[in-house]
Amino acid sequence: MPGFADLVLILFVVAVVLVTHQLPRLATLAGQALQRLRQKKNASPSAPPEHPSSPSEDDV
To answer: d(Cα 41, Cα 47) in Å, to the nearest integer?
Structure first.
């Protein structure tokens, strides 16, 4: 019967193999998420956000 250290090593190797097989998929998912963030940033209105502490021209 394998010892505890052997089981941990086997689980570690299995985890590494699974992660390395998923790396291309994870990379494409990360790339798609970055593209969505860039599109949201570019699609946002170009008007600067209003700051209530700064006096506007109407207050003067």
So the answer is: 12
Specify the pTM.
0.43
pLDDT means over runs of 10, the chain (60 residues): 88 92 88 91 64 54
Provide the residue type at 22 as one letter.
Answer: Q
Separation CA 40–CA 33 (nearest Å): 11
Which helix or strand (DSSP H or E) is residue 30 part of? helix 4-43
- pLDDT, residue 27, reads 87
- Integer Cα distance of 43 and 41 in angstroms: 6
Task: Calculate ∠ Cα 15-16-19, nearest 5°.
Answer: 85
The tokens of 48 are what? 């600067």
